[in-house]
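Q: Predict the assembly, please.
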Amino acid sequence: MQRYKCVVSYDGTGFAGYQVQPGKRTVQGEIEAVLAKIHKGEAVKVTASGRTDSGVHAKGQVIHFDSPLSIPPERWPAALNSMLGGEIVILLAERVKPDFHARFDAIGKEYRYVLYLGKNKNPFNRNYAYHYPYPLNLAKMEEAARHLTGRYDFSSFCASNTEVADKVRTITDISLKKEDECLVLGFKGNGFLYNMVRILTGTLIEVGSGAREAAAIPSLIAARDRTLAGKTAPAHGLYLWEVFYEDWVQKSKTTKPGV
Amino acid sequence: MQRYKCVVSYDGTGFAGYQVQPGKRTVQGEIEAVLAKIHKGEAVKVTASGRTDSGVHAKGQVIHFDSPLSIPPERWPAALNSMLGGEIVILLAERVKPDFHARFDAIGKEYRYVLYLGKNKNPFNRNYAYHYPYPLNLAKMEEAARHLTGRYDFSSFCASNTEVADKVRTITDISLKKEDECLVLGFKGNGFLYNMVRILTGTLIEVGSGAREAAAIPSLIAARDRTLAGKTAPAHGLYLWEVFYEDWVQKSKTTKPGV
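A: Predicted assembly structure:
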């Protein structure tokens, strides 16, 4: 038995989210169905770094699975992709130690949220960006982003039905970048609560529109009350961009010794 | 009765082409259905600059229709877009003379063809670019493009079942532009035959891959034989980008007197 780690990109539009649900088309369900075919009907369980909701996309989701087949790692992507159609793409596969775990070993994640600021609707990004054709004050959004960066109890930015007890997380970086007619918000941190990035985005939009003061963010965090934060931004603007593991950090350290 | 000209963008993925066909979902069919609703069930005929095939997109298709309603032109886009969903977007509407005709008055068109050159499949452009992950010699493609620019009988680059008698057309410009991991081919001309841009693209790809010589293009044009040209490139990489009318030329002349 050999354990494989894969980096997976998917268009979340046509799926009821990542996680298997009876009677629904899910990303995990599609990948497991293809793996079962390759294993002559034998079920292969796939474990991801975390779920993504219906409509949410991934540029670099990470999964792991075990297989007794002696397929070289570099051959797995083509083998899986030829059966997956184009909505889910395996970008990379590598052999990992038998105790590697896509979820428990993840030490951080990056999410990105794409706002399309163009005046007109655009049929080509309607499922890939949230159309927000109103003025935004980026300087105020950046001020709010600085207040949100750090180690805090993010209860105000978490869906109220979340069962996790410990809502303390560390956001290491929030970036705002204009790309053509889009504004891309990048969120890096050691972990994110349920709906956290979408609530952070909704709150930053309200700061940018003038509906909320950047200076009021610290008291909003302190209140630990979901009802005081902004709206949950729509799923289709959100991307799980990258998942970080210890080996990744070591690699970056060795390749960039000055950093 | 007032005639309106509209610029329309659409994602061709979910449509059986532009033109109405019984029992099929088409761009024209959707727009006419929405116009009928606005006109209390009265049929409104929509005329376009030309058809696009199934899977082909439009950034700037042009249509015209007549309406007895006294809606200001600037209000038409919002009225139609709210009922069209996001796949078809009316970008602009303006009142035109009663004899304006979207097809007969068009003096030229621009098409673009998008090749995605990335090594991996990309789930986000699978319906919007043709994935071609092999090397292309752009200098040779540009040489071939120069041979194809001009006034010629383009029978070699036209689907063989086309009924049009006169296959002489003028291509005024073919451009190649790298944009991130894509190569965008732009074709401007006074008119294009059925499948012409897709056959030109397929032929240019064969020149770029080394399967065909750029210097052999003049004899390929002279042969007037479809079987000698390249493969028809897939529909989903093609965009009707812009349609040109006389007033557009006059406007450009007045705003750019030096050109």
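The interface with chain B takes residues 9-11, 57, 77, 81, 86-89, 91, 120-124, 126, 128 of chain A (CB under 8 Å). Helices of chain A lie at 27-38, 76-84, 138-148, 196-209, 217-223, 246-255.
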